[in-house]
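hiii so um. not sure if this is the right channel but i have a protein structure encoded as tokens and i wanna go backwards to a sequence. like what aa goes where. can anyone help
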């Protein structure tokens, strides 16, 4: 069925105007000041967007759904994650494929994609984590880029013995990425330094979740960024620092930018609105807030918001990594090192950014759209099909009521996780109608779409 959005205030990364938008055959086909209903297909749903914002569908550039990690598996599947994403205005997500050190890249791609195909209700792509780099892995990486449209890799400078990569392999991977035009996303810390710090703290009887942050302080994250940037400078590869949590790491990235290194910076929702007092909460409650890099001193939030406003931070993702409190987070009651890392936020991201970023005056609406939709599309080979409201783009649209308040929490979350890190928070702004390629998939937070309709987005590498 065709869709006509009447009278919405169209907000993109650069524009702000009122117009009607008509969508047919999955795409936006007309944008005009006033579209005459007599000029469109009989079978058209007319959506009154008067007084509301019309945003391009939001893109979450950093999500974990299928995630075997720290001795357990993340709780969501593509059905629950899609529903949560859509309820919060996200229409495309980029998931991290995180294979084990012995797994072949091609098999990992198939494993992750097979999880998505029957259940995805949003469109999706993958960043492929490279955890082995032998001859076979290299051949398969190139194949996946050229044949399956995987245009971004992921490396971990953390999680010793599980996901980390040696410096020799990191260098060679960046060379390969440069040759193929692939951007390399990276978790920047230092696996050995963290391992040593964790052992020191545990030996001293410091076992609670409040010790997670001191085991991987801001200096470790900053040195991880410097380290990666040095390798990028030597190889010419393009890099993207995921979940940047602190001013020190941001400064390291900016220094590299000033040297001419091709480096982009991602912030994620938890670091923008939560601080290190949360993992310090009593009664092991703090385990809900253990993620890596950790939640930091509150002052770092200003640096991240200011970095977004200045264009030094490019994107806002979530790092949605869903683990239950009961049975998963509490595996670490005797040692913080065993608490599965992650804070689910895929449903909450946009309303958190609108409330604590836009309404509090830290960023404007264009920066919000740029960081949460347009820039991820541009960096990861999806633009202008995604991330824009333009004729020919996919009809991924969000009718957003900027004045509607609601309360975040488990009761309204579609994620399968048994807690919500933002429980009871009052936010202002809400996605009312969310479409993916011209089909309404969510209304007022309820899923009304089709499971399995989500498509794998094949991308062309652009980072030569
Ligand atoms: O705490 C986090 N970030 N968990 C997910 C894995 C990762 O490092 O992105
Ligand atoms: Zn990470
Ligand atoms: Zn992550």
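sure thing!! here u go:
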């Amino acid at each position: 069925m065709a869709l006509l959005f009447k009278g919405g205030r169209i907000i993109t990364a650069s524009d702000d105007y009122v117009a009607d938008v008509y969508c047919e055959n999955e795409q936006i086909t007309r944008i005009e000041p006033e579209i005459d209903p007599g000029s469109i297909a009989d079978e058209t749903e007319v959506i009154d967007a008067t007084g509301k914002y019309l945003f391009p569908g939001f893109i979450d550039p950093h999500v974990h759904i299928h995630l075997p990690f720290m001795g357990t598996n993340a709780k969501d599947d593509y059905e629950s994650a899609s529903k949560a994403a859509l309820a919060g205005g996200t229409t495309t997500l980029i998931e991290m494929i995180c294979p084990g050190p012995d797994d072949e890249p091609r098999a990992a791609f198939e494993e992750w994609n097979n999880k998505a195909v029957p259940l995805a209700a949003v469109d999706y792509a993958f960043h492929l984590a490279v955890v082995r780099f032998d001859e076979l892995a290299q051949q398969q990486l190139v194949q996946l880029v050229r044949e399956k449209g995987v245009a971004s890799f992921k490396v971990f400078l953390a999680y010793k013995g599980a996901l980390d990569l040696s410096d020799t392999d990191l260098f060679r991977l960046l060379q390969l990425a440069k040759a193929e035009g692939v951007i390399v996303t990276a978790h920047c810390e230092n696996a050995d330094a963290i391992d040593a710090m964790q052992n020191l703290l545990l030996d001293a009887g410091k076992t609670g979740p409040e010790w997670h942050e001191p085991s991987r302080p801001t200096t470790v994250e900053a040195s991880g960024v410097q380290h990666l940037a040095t390798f990028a400078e030597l190889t010419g590869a393009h890099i993207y620092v995921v979940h940047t949590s602190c001013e020190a790491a941001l400064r390291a990235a900016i220094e590299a930018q000033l040297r001419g290194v091709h480096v982009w910076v991602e912030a994620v929702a938890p670091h923008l609105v939560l601080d290190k007092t949360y993992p310090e909460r009593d009664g092991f409650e703090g385990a809900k807030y253990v993620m890596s890099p950790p939640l930091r001193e509150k002052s770092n939030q200003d640096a991240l918001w200011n970095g977004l406003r200045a264009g030094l931070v490019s994107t806002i993702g979530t790092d949605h990594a869903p683990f239950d409190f009961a049975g998963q987070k509490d595996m670490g009651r005797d040692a913080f090192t065993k608490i599965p890392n992650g804070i689910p936020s895929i449903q909450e991201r946009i309303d958190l950014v609108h409330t604590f970023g836009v309404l509090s005056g830290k960023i404007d609406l264009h920066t919000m759209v740029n960081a949460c939709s347009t820039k991820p599309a541009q960096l990861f080979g999806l633009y202008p099909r995604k991330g824009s409201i333009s004729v020919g783009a996919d009809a991924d649209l969000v009718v957003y009521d900027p004045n509607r308040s609601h309360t975040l929490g488990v009761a309204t979350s579609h994620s399968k996780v048994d807690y919500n890190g933002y429980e009871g928070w009052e936010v202002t702004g809400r996605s009312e109608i969310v479409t993916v390629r011209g089909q309404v998939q969510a209304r007022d937070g309820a899923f009304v779409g089709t499971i399995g309709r989500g498509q794998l987005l094949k991308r062309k590498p652009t980072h030569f």
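oh and The domain at 57-379 is CATH 3.20.20.140 (TIM Barrel).
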